[in-house]
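hey
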């Protein structure tokens, strides 16, 4: 990433059988490519889409709380990115999406 940016990478979330036990992993790297923070956790039963949204939210919160204001999010889930960009408040994942958008708009 550009100087001063933090890259939220390897945003990984998975749930067993798409509604089972879920886990999340977040890696944050600085603009030099050095790992600055790793976070992993188990979450309650949820869908793959919801866990991907949770991981992005947790990663953004982690980066923000560490003082990083410019964060690039990288995920391999096109569905998740589309939801964040285009979902309406009628989406079943709106609460997570709204929290992600709120953090993305902070200065």
């Amino acid at each position: 990433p550009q100087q001063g940016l933090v890259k939220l990478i390897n945003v990984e979330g998975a749930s067993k059988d798409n509604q089972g036990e879920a886990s999340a992993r977040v890696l944050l790297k600085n603009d030099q490519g050095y790992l600055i923070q790793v976070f992993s956790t188990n979450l309650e039963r949820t869908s793959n889409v919801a866990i991907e949204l949770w991981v992005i939210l947790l990663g953004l919160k982690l980066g923000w709380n560490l003082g990083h204001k410019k964060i690039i999010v990288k995920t391999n889930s096109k569905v998740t990115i589309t939801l964040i960009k285009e979902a309406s408040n009628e989406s079943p994942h709106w609460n997570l999406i709204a929290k992600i958008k709120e953090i993305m708009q902070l200065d």
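The first helix runs from residue 48 to 65. The mean pLDDT is 82.
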